[in-house]
Amino acid sequence: IWQEYGEELYEARDYRTAELAVRRALALQPGSVPAVLDLALILRALGRTAEALAELDGPAGAGNLDALRARALWLMEAGRGVEAAAAVEALWRAAPGDPLGSYVEARLKLREGRRAQAQAFLRQAAASGAEAPFTARVSAALAALLGGQR
């Protein structure tokens, strides 16, 4: 109940109270992966990215795909390229060719100025329509945007 309450508060953007509710859920059920993932999302919404990433360590280390994906994406968004690349490798060890990993890798290649390699990763992610429709659409749009730039 506490976790569900925390999720409702998160959706209502009452992040501080959501954090308290999810922490209560974790006190009652330590190590609950869904609750840990919820807490990480809440901490990130509060601007506490380092704490959010630390919360993901346990589930990511255990191979939880949602935690691995969030870790790779959040590190990339935080501008921590080397760590993001390592997170993508960890994700690909657990789920070879994961579309979100391809998207993150493409964004990292773009930051390095390696457009051709970025395009290849974007095409790979865009081809994953049924598996990851949102990632496929975003990747296809970015690939089209890059294809139009000279």
Care to describe what's here?
The structure is a single chain. The protein has 150 residues and is mainly alpha-helical. The mean pLDDT is 94. It is built from nine helices and no strands. The longest helix has 16 residues, at 133-148. Helices cover 79% and strands 0% of the residues.
What topology emerges from the helices and strands here?
Blueprint lengths: L1 H10 L3 H14 L4 H13 L3 H13 L3 H13 L3 H14 L4 H13 L3 H12 L6 H16 L2
- Our Rg estimate from Cα atoms comes to 17 Å
The pLDDT mean sits at 94
Put simply, the count of helices is 9
Tally the beta strands. 0
Strand content: under 5%
Question: What can be said about the biggest beta sheet?
Answer: none
What's the helical proportion of residues? Answer: over 70%
Give the assembly state of these chains.
single chain
Element string (H = helix, E = strand): HHHHHHHHH
Low-confidence stretches: none
Question: Which term fits the overall shape?
Answer: elongated
Content-based structural category: mainly alpha
Task: Please supply descriptive tags for the structure shown above.
150 residues; mainly alpha; 79% helix
Structure summary:
By secondary structure, the chain is an all-alpha fold. Helices cover 79% and strands 0% of the residues.
